[in-house]
Amino acid sequence: MTPTSKTLAGRIAIVTGATAGIGRSVAQQVVAAGGRVVVNGRREALLADLAASLNTDRPGGDASPAAIAVAGDCASQGTIDAMLGAAERDLGAPADLVVINAGRGLAGSVLTSDTGAWEELLRTNVLGASLLLRAAGGAMSERGSGDIESGRWPASPRDIVILGSTVGRHISPFSSMYGATKFAVNSLAEAARREIGPKGVRVTLIEPGVVESEFQGVAGYDERTFGEFMANIAPVLTPDDVAASIVAACAQPAGVHWSDIVIRPTRQEYP
């Protein structure tokens, strides 16, 4: 599913974790909907290929870039500053749509999961999300507060989208360390919504259920067992399904906020 109209025309986005899966689909759909995007990920070659593909065949002979790649660790303040700087310097305006998507999974519970992976799990899923939320939320709040204070509402849309998970809402004992990080992200998103929503910044939490991507393999899920689970609830979500929900939420008028979106395969009963 891809956008059929330029619903994000003029928007400048940042998407983390864009080398594959949901992040890659979001970047593609933002550009298809008329926006421009700074894409981020650790795998520099894949990221460069994505940016090049998004910059190919710009409509109407537009020579300005649709995408800029900023490779690096999403939990590094230097990388965050570079992404925000690239939006303004290379795409022509500060970012007004930030998708905090980068994350990693981990199979197992607090009793059975690999303790050696805990620190990186927390660093990526919680610390990285918090740092980008802080930087983007502060910048967007400052830019839009004057409009609201002087009665010029609705202001132009400004969006921060955070990828949670259904296991952050309904904790599963089989992935409880990962679920705990997404529970934290859910709380951060709602707290930020209450703090900067009155300043015209929409903080949207997207909680997908099972999505078919490379995520499960990287997280260490058992291929046979999880494959059987996916087969039992098929068809599962695709990254494009989740990306379409994000684009639709951000395309709403500035005074309308789809603040919490749970998206599951129809046959997924739990979580």
Structure explained in plain terms:
It is a single chain. The protein has about 270 residues and is α/β, with parallel strands linked by helices. The protein has one domain (about 10-265): NAD(P)-binding Rossmann-like Domain (Rossmann fold), CATH 3.40.50.720. Helices cover about 45% and strands about 15% of the residues. The protein has nine helices and seven strands. It has a seven-stranded parallel beta sheet with strand order 3-2-1-4-5-6-7, sandwiched between helices. Helix 1 packs across helix 9 (about 240-250) and helix 4 (about 120-150) packs parallel to helix 6. The radius of gyration is 18 Å and the shape is globular. The chain starts with 11 loop residues before the first strand and ends in an 8-residue tail after the last strand.
Major sheet details: 7 strands, parallel
What is the first-to-last residue Cα distance?
A: 24 Å
SS strand fraction: 5-15%
What is the share of helical residues? 40-55%
CATH architecture: 3-Layer(aba) Sandwich
- Derived from helix and strand composition plus strand pairing, the structural class reads alpha/beta
The quaternary organization reads as single chain
Record field, number of beta strands? 7
Order of helices and strands: EHEHEHEHEHHEHHHE
Using the coordinates shown, work out and report the CATH topology: Rossmann fold
Instruction: Provide the gyration radius in Å.
Output: 18 Å
- Taking pLDDT < 50 over at least 5 consecutive residues as the criterion, the unreliable ranges are none
Taking all residues together, what is the mean pLDDT? 92
The backbone outline, from C-alpha atoms, is globular
